[in-house]
Amino acid sequence: MAGVTPERTRARPLSPHLQIYKPQINMVMSIVHRITGTALYVGTVLLAWWLFAAATGPEYFAFVNGLFATWFGMVVLVGFSWALIHHALGGLRHFVWDTGAAFDIPSVNLLSWGTIILSVLLTGALWLYIACERGWVQ
Hints:
Blueprint: H1 25-56, H2 58-68, H3 71-98, H4 105-134
């Protein structure tokens, strides 16, 4: 740049970014909330496919049901149910914050840890119930 003195060309400080910040639970939960929201889009397409198969006929429904009954299909179903529960609990956490409550750091941390722990426990309870109803466990 013509006419610029050396003092004006020194490097400007960068904004803080992920390499600067130490990961904290509320930051991680914010990222996971976005990821589970995206995963729910994919899961909703799979749910629509399953409903379409049910409306199409018994042969196609058996085919789609068979895919969901494989080990990979079961992993997808468990993951979808966890994403749904986790995203819902994250939404409740944000609802609490929308009321103006629980903004102090201990409360933020408690709600964030509660979201992850409760989502895993509720998903486990849901699938234990399903396994008992299906006769997979006794």
